[in-house]
Amino acid sequence: MDRDSGPRVRVPEQRTPSIPATADALRFTVLGPVRAWRGSELLSSGSPQQRALLTALLLREGRTATAGELIDAFWGEDPPSQALATIRTYASRLRKILGQDTLVSESGGYAIRTERSALDLTLAQDLAAEAEKARAAGDRCQARTLINKVLGLWDGEALASVPGPYADNQRTRLEEWRLQLTETRLDLDLEVGCHAEAVSELTALTAAHPLRERLRELLMVALYRSGRQAEALAVYADTRRLLAEELGVDPRPELAQLQQRILRADEELARPADEPAPAPAPLKPAQLPATVPDFTGRSAFVTELGSRLATAEGSVMAVSAVAGIGGVGKTTLAVHVAHQARRHFPDGQLYVDLQGAGARAAEPETVLGSFLRALGTADSAIPDTLDERAALYRSTLDGRRILILLDNAHDAAQIRPLLPGTPGCAALVTSRVRMVDLAGAHLVDLDVMSPEEALQLFTRIVGAERVGAEREAALDVVAACGFLPLAIRIAASRLAARRTWTVSVLAAKLADERRRLDELQAGDLAVKATFELGYGQLEPAQAHAFRLLGLADGPDISLAAAAALLDLDPHVAEDLLEALVDTSLVESAAPGRYRYHDLVRLYARACAERDEQPPVRRELALSRLLDFYLATAAGVYALERPGERVLDHFTPTEYPGLTFPAREAALDWLFTESSGLLACARQSAAIGMPQRAADLLMAVVDLGESGANSHQFATAAKAVSEAAKAAGVPRAEARARTMLSHVHSVSGRFAEAEAEAMRALDLGRLAQDAVSQGQAPNQRGIIALYENRHDDAEAHLTQALTAFRADGNKPGEAAALCNLSRVHLATGRTATAVRLAEEGVAIYDSDASGLALRLANGKYALGLALIGSGRTDPARHVLLEALQIFRESRQQLWHGMTLFRLSELHLTEQEGAQAAAHAEQSLVVLRGIGGDWRRANVLTVLGRALTVIGQTDRAQVCWGEALTVFEELGSPEAEAVRQLLDPAGVG
Hints:
Layout: E1 26-29, E2 35-38, E3 41-43, H1 48-58, E4 65-66, H2 67-75, H3 83-98, E5 103-106, E6 109-112, H4 120-136, H5 140-152, H6 165-191, H7 195-208, H8 213-225, H9 229-246, H10 253-263, H11 299-310, E7 318-323, H12 330-340, E8 349-353, H13 364-374, H14 386-397, E9 403-409, H15 412-415, E10 426-431, E11 442-445, H16 451-462, H17 464-469, H18 471-480, H19 485-497, H20 503-512, H21 514-519, H22 524-535, H23 540-549, E12 557-558, H24 559-566, H25 570-582, E13 587-590, E14 593-595, H26 598-611, H27 616-640, H28 663-672, H29 674-686, H30 690-699, H31 701-704, H32 710-727, H33 730-746, H34 750-767, H35 770-786, H36 790-807, H37 810-826, H38 830-847, H39 853-868, H40 872-888, H41 892-908, H42 912-925, H43 931-948, H44 952-969, H45 973-981
């Protein structure tokens, strides 16, 4: 047993890298089977004994091995009488294979002369030395990458099948080095925040090396940092018991001290320890938008805010809040000040537009997720709830000096969770409202520019020569703009772009509108006047595009979608959009993507209501956008689900969508456009297009299973179902409620899912809708299966099967067959379970490409049936195929559930380490999706796997957590978990 008491294997010092080998040069491997290549040709290395000689010489790294040393390596203390002759024979044969210049005889022995880089072991040593240097220099990510390269050189057991005592000793040495490298890599994993991902590997390693305390220590830290404190303590209890039983000793002091720190909930342990050498943060965000080159004036505010931010270097956490009306330059000032203050915040700067002036302000938990990712936190390590995310965010910022710019805040409640909690950091907030209820904040009210500053800004944009010649007219212009920076920038940009205009011409145009501007001096109405100024100078086609684009909900819009809404060729649409960007009325969010400032969007909609008459013109624009999204999404759906009849029942679209050359590009589009797609569904239903909105939801159903978009999908499905109900469109309501049922089921909310599915089925019958009459009972069958109502499940799924067959929907038929297979499996009918799943897979195979998502669903069901029938090898094969497809399809739910099923499979084979590793991976993947019920099922299986590998205390913790969930949900699985926790106490 390998308790950590022996000497550590030293990684050899790095040597000067050799000249790269030529294409026909020899190269050798010992970190696996001992092999030799010449170029790409694998050479025969002869018998095992001959490979033993090759091994002994290679591991000498060019040094000569005497005949006596080789005899000892082969036979130890009992060599045969012809040992020397045998050695010479093997050497002669190897020389013929390798060449006389490679295997040489000297000083009564032999040596192999070759480039250092020709042996995988020496390459591994050099890479490991580089990793040590990178870690010492504080570059953890580089060190981690290099060690992964070293471990990647192993190809199974080192010196595989090579006989002799020397090979045995070297094999043990190399395996120990491999373990030490793995421990170092895992230590680095924890240091860079990948603790949740590390738990799976550490669980398997502690099973394989149960007395290796360093691995147990790393596992405890990984569990603790993943929020699993009770499990971390249980690992210590398991370790202490095992050491006492096997060796009669206590855990080493380091492990006992770690237990005490976990018991105290040591906050320092929740983050990586500081390196002895200065080390940069894993990631240094630099998210500040570019400052404008012609920033003008505001010197007093710049000094005031800059001084305030600088105090964050001392003993306080600085918060400054800048308030003012739209267009007054809050963001421009804040960005400029933030750039000037960057030197005070060497660990980075975070930025977010909180969209506080819009209808849907950014949710703090969403912003925290984005910030945590920018700070280097892995997706799997980001908690689900707002409070947990805020706590992790504050912990991540602790000890770092970071500036957070929170732009366009709605109110103090929105930003409180986003504020840092420790000295060294600072927050700069902009908002239309004064943050009087933000404790400790330094409040700044930003007014319009002074006349001098306004004229200076106007001059910088237009040019000193033109303004100098007409100074009075220029003063008239900035006065007409109300000295608002945004209005001045719009007016000056228009003048700068028109070389034939004089300043007086612009002043005269503004004078014509003076009465209207004078009427709009208070609050937001002044902002509207500034937009009116820029809007009034647009060309007719630009103004038309500005009005219509503002109608669409969603955070931004792609060029292709905008072209559809405008009913224009994409090239023409791009010219118009870029012209609007030049006027500052539209922003370019990214190449080919456009967005409105929230206040500008409101103004654009007001213009559309006023100028786009009759109203049907606005409705047609949004109808074209819906058509574009629906047609494109239907194409993606068809790629994922070939032969699916659902598309045939969609409302025909008049505007075409995009087509994609490959499945990957289609999925990229779907997930990139997710917010716009779901916003379009909500908006379209609300303005009288519920049927196509419901169809769009069905076409983007993958978003409901992806994890990242499940909440948005549920919100959209609820909005569409309610709008369809209000409009009296039962077919649309049935389809929307079917989707709502589906996303509730995905999230583990089975009672809500059942209620929606029942309502959907009733509506489907009323509307004679083939889609919901098939999908709703199929959904009810799945829910009943999860709730162990097997008779109900079989009845619902049989009903679904009949409906799918009546509709000629072969993929739907296959889905119902696969779900029926699971019912048969749950009720002990394994033979028919396998047959039904095979029938479903055969249907998918006949209509689908090998990567179709539905085929993966069929293989998933078949894998379960094969496990139930005891055919674990074919079950493993089909589940791994399904896993690959789910991963490539970005289906987080099914990816995680397939890992769970593989864990169950390994458990049936009593492969506890593999079962525990897959269960841990499942927990990581299912974070944020699947609901508590699925998590509790995974925890139950994880506990059983941990019992197999002797980690019984940790198993009890997993079962205890699972039982709590099952009892809260009223799930029947609770009884089985109680028996696992106390088999003797359950009658």
